[in-house]
């Protein structure tokens, strides 16, 4: 839902306002994904252990049911996790 808000600049419940709040400030999908991964880790001073999938870093990731990078913008708010892995351990699998 936060990715949708960053890209669409609209509310996640009704998608209002149409066209988004200050659409010039919308992030691209790449920028939004980076903001919640690499940039988030950098803000925590944890970029050496978090933020990307690399050898020596925590294996924290989610497997999604929809391709965030290619789906329609309105579909982003409906994306769900199929599986979530934290520190290399599966902590959630969709029933």
Index terms:
alpha+beta; 21% helix; globular; three-stranded antiparallel beta sheet; 3 helices; 95 residues
- Please give the count of helices: 3
Strand order of the largest sheet: 1-2-3
Structural class: alpha+beta
Helix content: 10-25%
Strand content: 15-25%
What is the gyration radius calculated from CA atoms? 15 Å
Largest sheet: 3 strands, antiparallel
N- and C-termini, Cα separation = 21 Å
Question: What is the chain-wise order of helices and strands?
Answer: HHHEEE
Rounded average pLDDT:
91
Total count of strands: 3
Uncertain stretches: none
How do the strands and helices of this protein lay out in sequence?
Layout: H1 2-8, H2 29-35, H3 38-43, E1 61-64, E2 81-86, E3 89-93
Antiparallel strand pairs: 1-2, 2-3
What does this structure look like?
With 95 residues, the protein is α+β, with helices and mostly antiparallel strands. It has one domain (2-93). Helix content is 21%, strand content 16%. It contains three helices and three strands. Strands 1-2-3 form a three-stranded antiparallel beta sheet, with no helix packed on it. A hairpin with a 2-residue loop joins strand 2 and strand 3.
In short:
With 95 residues, this protein is α+β, with helices and mostly antiparallel strands. It has one domain.
């Amino acid at each position: 839902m936060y990715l949708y808000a960053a890209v669409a600049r609209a509310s996640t419940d009704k998608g209002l306002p149409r066209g988004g709040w200050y659409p010039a400030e919308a992030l691209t999908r790449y920028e939004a994904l980076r903001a919640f991964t690499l940039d988030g880790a950098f803000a925590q001073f944890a970029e050496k252990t978090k933020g990307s999938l690399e050898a020596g870093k925590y294996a924290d990731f989610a497997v999604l049911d929809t391709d965030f990078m290619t789906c329609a913008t309105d579909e982003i708010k409906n994306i769900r996790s199929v599986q979530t892995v934290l520190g290399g351990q599966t902590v959630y699998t969709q029933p």
